[in-house]
Amino acid sequence: METFFSAVLGDLLSRSISFVIDRYQRQQQDVEENLQRLHRVLLRIQAIVEEADERRITNQAMLLQLRVVRATMYRGYYFLDSFRHRVIQAHAQDEVRDHSLDLSSPFNPSKRFCSSSATRKTVCEVSEKKELQKMLGDLERAVSDMQEFVVFVSSYPRVIRQPYCSYLLLQNCMFGRQAEQERVINFLLQPQHPCARGIDVLPIIGPGRVGKRTLVEHVCHDERVRKYFTIVFYGPDSIGGGDMELLADNGVIKHRNPASTEQLLVIIELVNDMDDKTWRRILHSLRGNHVSKIILTSRSNKIATLGTTEALHLDFLPREAFWYFFKTIAFGSTNPEDEPMLASICMEIVTVLKGSFMALHILGGILRSNPSAQFWYRFLKCLKYYTDKHIYVLGEHPSYAYRKRNGLTFIWTSQNQRVIAVRYSIYQSSSARPADLRMFTSSDILTRNVELPEKFDVLDWQSSIPPYYCYMTHYEKLARQPHMLPKRKRSRLLSEGLV
Fold first, then answer.
1. Pairing of strands 230-234, 252-255
2. Alpha-carbon distances of 299 from 199, 233, 273, 474, rounded to whole Å
3. CATH class of 201-313
4. Is residue 75 over pLDDT 90?
5. What residue ranges do the domains of the chain occupy?
6. Disulfide check for 321: which of 210, 212, 288, 317 has CB 3.0–4.6 Å away?
7. 185 burial class (0-12, 13-18, 19+ CB within 10 angstroms)?
8. Which among 358, 400, 350 is positioned nearest to 379, based on CA atoms?
9. Model's pTM, two decimal places?
């Protein structure tokens, strides 16, 4: 009898185990199928976006819809890569747990902990599957709603250029500002009303290093604008007190079009705001000199009141678009899907960067030059350590610090894994050759064993798009190094927020 019951129990147990295994395999197959469907839908959306970017769209509603479609594509790719990243992290944790825990005894507390962890893991998997199904449904509905949009897009003329989304060309094009560029161009080409008095003014507002000057340069290079205007630029130090004589002496002619002598476009770049008295004097000086349009750029929201139309506000890229851009720069012509471990490390690095354009180009170039998982992981650990130390001592993320023109910060060097306290000053130059000081590149400091003098300049990044600036930083070492600096209010460690 005991033998019979043992055989029955054994058969039931084996059937139960087989059922659980089959069910798990079916669920995994469903997840893989949904991921493949999600990827195919994203490819369709990407094809639509690339086709729209090759068209000269002038309708503002169409541009707004294109912006929504592009944001949907970024969100979908971010979700897909984040989902794969969590799977890789879970597998890595399982391997560590399997090699570190002794589960020979059913009464082992580690086994009970493992069982509870497995329960939590099952709950997380169910939640993630629901998220995957929801994202897939949202994207499929978005594609079905794009039919009219695709028809309207095909009616616009093509722009003679290469598609910007190519892995090899993305870093040579302005990313994420297509709708803003068309809005500025539409403002410039819109004729003045015959009864209107004064000059049309468009304020462009945004924090430092967000891309205001790059946007204006791309607008000024557009053939539609160059056919219509002679373009004059005034920097922050060239407007004087608003006197026309100073304006005439300090203005830089960016483009002279003999056929458009009656139409002048004036670009005025401000660091902060401008008082009303100076602004009135500038308008009085420019009025009557064939100036029909003015573009004001500044970091201050106060200049919005100086415009005759709604101000254009620029902000840093959302995390989904930032991830799409950084992944493209870091992998170059390599397909990230062929390197899932590198893609997982890359996603953690993106979380650390907090949307910094400059760090994106600097670190993306370094990673692309050495596509090794070991190098990328070691670089991630050093980046976390440096960032946490910066937050702990100075109370702010390094990317926020570098949005100011000068201040106090740390630089991390590969030499003896040192973190050095420095005072910095940021500037732009058309040439990467400082007059007196020794110059390094950011890649030299982060990856090579270099000895830094007391004062030195660093070429952070040399832009390959207009205005083709070399972004430089001047550093001076501080006598009091990190362990002697006064501690400010401690912020939450960045590593706590990593995916």
1. antiparallel
2. 22, 17, 8, 22
3. alpha beta
4. yes
5. 2-153, 201-313, 319-497
6. 317
7. middle
8. 350
9. 0.78
